[in-house]
Amino acid sequence: VIMEATYGDRLHNEIQQKNSALHDIIIDTIARNGNVVIPSFAIERTQEILYVLNMLKEAKDSKIRNIPVYVDSPLAINATKIFQSFLPYFDEDAQKLIKTGDDPFDFPNLKFTHTPDESKAINFTEGSSIIISASGMCEAGRIKHHLKHNLWREESSVVFVGYQAQNTLGRRIKDGEKVVKIFGEEIA
Predict the structure, then answer these.
(1) Distance between CA atoms of 35 and 44, rounded to whole angstroms?
(2) How far is CA 10 from CA 6, 7, 13, 163, in A?
(3) Strand 185-187 relative to strand 180-182: parallel, antiparallel, unpaired?
(4) Percent of the chain whose pLDDT exceeds 70
(5) Distance (Å, whole) CA 160 – CA 152
(6) Is it true that the peptide bond before 133 is cis, omega within 30 degrees of 0?
């Protein structure tokens, strides 16, 4: 028997609880005029988050419908395109959504940032936004720039949606370290 055990030492909340918690965090952050920064693995986790955000944005009483969502990872963008080309193979719940004409990875105010300049511009836009960026453990990639610009801001939130290994930047932030180094600069 072969079993993946990354999360084998914990019980997981029900999907509805997780989705509700994410929705609440987004609402609270928007009320503070902050950004929601989501460090995410480029393959599978980013697409899972997009799927959930699509459902939350399209809910009848959605308060997040007009909030921009940025996918800021070239690998995640390419992986999402591949996921979109295999929609007929998704599970029953996704098929119900797709049959209504809804692409779970495409919704209003979803922006894919391809270039470094587009990525940098995110941190200088006005108003709240949701930023999904790699790497999932915050060790490399564009996420480090978004953390540098948002981690110290009390009005912003960082939402970890994946495993954070010991001694990674993500784990240090998650464990509540008061100051972390990003690009050689100390960030509160």
Answers:
(1) 23
(2) 9, 6, 10, 12
(3) antiparallel
(4) 94
(5) 16
(6) no
Are 134 and 14 in contact, with CB atoms under 8 Å apart?
Answer: no
Two tokens, residue 121: 């511009």
Q: What order do you get walking across the sheet with 130-133 strand by strand?
A: 110-112, 69-72, 130-133, 36-39, 157-158
pTM of the model: 0.90
- 63-110 per-position pLDDT tens digit: 999 999 999 999 999 999 999 999 888 888 888 888 888 888 999 999
DSSP for the chain? Answer: -----TTTTSPPPPHHHHHHHHHHHHHHHHHTT--EEEE--TTTHHHHHHHHHHHHHHSTT-S-TTS-EEEE-HHHHHHHHHHHTTGGGS-HHHHHHHHTT--TT--TTEEE--SHHHHHHHTT-SS--EEEES-TTSSSSTHHHHHHHHTT-TT-EE---S---TTSHHHHHHTT-S-EEETTEEE-
Residue 33: both structure tokens together = 């005029």
Contact predicate 6/127, CB 8 Å: no
CA dist 102 and 105 (Å) reads: 9
In the structure encoding, which two tokens stand for residue 126, read together?
């006005």
